[in-house]
């Protein structure tokens, strides 16, 4: 009897974020909004993105930094209103003192109780590969497209 992938997919869509998300805060890329620009650049070079929190103790999410945020600063040919076309001598590093200065505010988020289908819709619509999972405005986990693929593969494999 052939596997009914549609049924499997429908069941997968109904799963909750809490069943798939990474909740070990030690492996989630979280940085403090006051982290220096040099440390932030090094962190992004390794992790590709960072969830920016008010402080590591509170874990209150205030923004996200991606490689694209750095690209927007460094990209040649783009006029940036406060200092013109960037080049080696015109980048105003004093303006970019810490993570808070370059982060994107109001990142797309999800909660532990959202369905996987809704999370996939958000990721697709906003063209993102990961979302922070929030509870009471604090980050409690992260869900990535990679985790979703692995979970779906494991479900199919065990069917």
TrEMBL record:
Coiled-coil boundaries: none
Key words of the record: CBS domain
One Pfam family linked to the record: CBS
Full protein name: CBS domain-containing protein
Signal peptide per UniProt: none
Organism lineage: Archaea, Methanobacteriati, Methanobacteriota, Candidatus Methanoliparia, Candidatus Methanoliparales
Domain named CBS: residues: 103-158
Entry superkingdom: Archaea
InterPro entries documented for this protein: CBS_dom, CBS_dom_sf, Diverse_CBS-Domain
